[in-house]
Design goal:
alpha+beta, 8 helices
């Protein structure tokens, strides 16, 4: 065969034949490892849009990547064919959180490792990265400063709320962010909303009592929240 023929002839290397037992064990291993990944995702999820469908997709994705890699083997032509087939696939839903992208790549990486026969690599990677994800969630690393409560206070228009509330906000709150100032009751009163984080040892009753003493005993509402604080 001439060099020109070799250039235009497709590679003839095919994937090595694997026994049914080997294929079954590889798929089962990928399934078990991606189940662990799904469990870690569920346990460490902190958002408000948890999706069981997304966790199922992680498990199936990691398992199917194993099948794809085992099918490709060393066949370069098949690899390019699979790449072309996957290039036409588009995500039909947007990922709600940036960390979800990491878990998608996590599941795919483990599936790839199992499919290529690197079982030890797949197991160690799953255990270590899962541990890292749990630690990040457990210690809440790199978290923004959050408010513990939303404070709503109503005052009559003759009260300067900035001066009246300066002292209790300074002594009762560790961090404060003004959310809104709204005219209520046909313009006869003003409602002020703050996102606050209570100082150590301060109870909600302390806050309500202190503000009622300064707003003419009008409405004071203190509601728990997990809102990010804007203290700039």
């Amino acid at each position: 065969m001439t060099e020109l023929e070799q250039l235009f002839m497709p590679p003839t290397t095919t994937a090595p034949t694997a026994s049914p037992l080997t294929v079954t064990l590889a798929i089962l291993l990928a399934f078990v490892l991606t189940l662990l990944i799904g469990a870690v995702y569920q346990r460490t999820h902190r958002g408000t849009r948890y999706s069981q469908d997304f966790v199922h997709a992680l498990v199936l994705l990691g398992t199917l990547v194993t099948v794809v890699i085992m099918g490709i083997g060393q066949n370069i032509a098949a690899a390019f064919g699979i790449f072309a087939a996957f290039s036409i696939i588009r995500f039909r839903r947007s990922l709600p959180e940036a960390r979800d992208i990491g878990f998608v790549f996590f599941a795919m990486s483990v599936g790839l490792a199992v499919g290529s026969g690197a079982f030890v690599l797949a197991i160690v990677t799953t255990l270590l990265v899962s541990l890292f994800a749990v630690l990040l969630a457990r210690f809440d690393l790199f978290a923004p400063e959050r408010a513990s409560h939303i404070l709503r206070v109503r005052v009559t228009n003759d009260i300067d709320f900035e001066d009246a509330f300066e002292e209790p906000l300074r002594t009762l709150a560790a961090a404060v962010s003004l959310i809104s100032v709204e005219s209520v009751q046909a313009g006869m009163m003003t409602e002020v909303r703050y996102a606050i984080r209570l100082a150590d040892g301060v109870s909600p009753r302390d806050v309500v009592t202190a503000f009622q003493e300064r707003n003419g005993n009008n409405r004071v509402i203190l509601a728990a929240t997990d809102l990010e604080l804007d203290t700039d």
